[in-house]
């Protein structure tokens, strides 16, 4: 559970008792909460240019592979007519 804390002059942390949404200091979170925050940030971040290019080329390549395969299958089927 997240907790609002402040940093003391001697380097220790002290809880403030404030709500996390109104915290004026630092928010201390557990490891599982931090992992969830990281997962959400990763899921909704914009892809890098290399990733976007890879998805575009992969989708275009799949369409081309299926098109060429269907042309070949169509040529074989037309021989039996």
Automatic annotation (TrEMBL):
This is Phage coat protein. Keywords: Membrane, Transmembrane, Transmembrane helix. It comes from the Bacteria. The chain crosses the membrane at residues 55-80.
């Amino acid at each position: 559970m997240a907790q609002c804390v402040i940093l003391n002059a001697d380097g220790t942390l002290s809880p403030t008792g404030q709500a996390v949404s109104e915290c004026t200091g630092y928010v201390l979170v557990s490891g599982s909460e931090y992992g969830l925050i990281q997962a959400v940030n990763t899921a909704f971040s914009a892809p890098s240019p290399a990733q976007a290019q890879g998805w575009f080329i992969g989708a275009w390549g799949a369409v081309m592979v299926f098109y060429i395969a269907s042309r070949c299958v169509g040529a074989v089927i037309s021989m039996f007519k």
